[in-house]
Target: L-serine ammonia-lyase
Amino acid sequence: MNAVSANLLKNLGTFLSARTLQMSTVNISPAAAEAGNYCITFDDVEKAHSVIKPYVHQTPLMTCSFIDKLCGRNVFMKTENLQKTGSFKIRGAANAIASLVRKNIKPDCIVTHSSGNFGLAVAKTAKHFNIPAYIVMPSNAPECKKNTVKSYGGVVVECSPTEKARMQKVKSVWVEKGGCFIHASQTAEVISGHATIGFEMLKQNPDLDAIVVPVGSGAMISGITIAAKHIKPSIKIYAAEPEKANDCYLSKCNSHITPVDHPVVTIADGVKVTIGENAWPIIRDLVDDVITVSEEQIIEATKLVWERAKLVIEPTSGVGIAAIVSEKFSKAKGMHDDVKNIGVVLCGGNADVGTVAKILTGV
Ligand SMILES: Cc1ncc(COP(=O)(O)O)c(C=O)c1O
Model:
């Protein structure tokens, strides 16, 4: 790293460190773990909403009477599968990068790690600002996602599919290339970018009584929760999660982050990761309940949306739909009869064609 980029890094450190992460440290100030003192505020969400406007779509809230019937409530699907780059991740990536640029900070490059969708979002946004992007991806990430990163001009750097390997690779790329590291889920600007989903949903339908969000690292649900509960304190927020990757469920039960103690194998590749430290205090304090679903339920729900709503979703989006049509949903904490209008985030549409063919044909 040359002196200029070292200095830039220092500056970026100043910019990003106050409430965000530095490289492999997933440390937050102890105060952030206290109730009510979270990594983002509603002001950050409002700011993010105006910062990202030029780079994202305001995706529609769509309905499907067949899904209403199965859920027994009115369902409003936030179609982030139709979002630029095919998922909500562009919101966080655009907020993190555009916020830097607005402060006249143009890094030599952006370095991040991602199993797919965040990598696409960073590659596209970085290209917009003419900044090289290095995306560390696990070797088993879906080919379609690796290819799309490359099509946006991002450089894919593969690593073994373990948390340790990915952080080691990120570190070595960052040391070699310099620039700015953006954590895919725990950087505060990423979380406030994702939060704009909740902000928009309540603008589009102020009558929503609950929002259901698939959870992986928790960046999306924690952001949505801060936005939605500020605008409408009575709203319920539910996390949806595969049974095979149920760390959010376990964490809520144990009141501390509890990773699963086995290798995670689920068709919902977007939510394999464990909740992050910045998202956790918000989930711990403000998310009403967690609904877990089986692989069969995820597959059925994904099929349902393809066939009945005519929307192309990836299986991770099926997790939320599986939750709202499950028996567990009506038994979730706070789910009373007056909770009638349910928002659910269709978080991504980057389906691998081979995987989807298997889902649809059952072969
Ligand atoms: C399509 C999709 N949905 C949901 C998630 C989970 O979001 P989060 O990690 O913010 O909980 C991801 C994360 O990669 C994703 O790609």
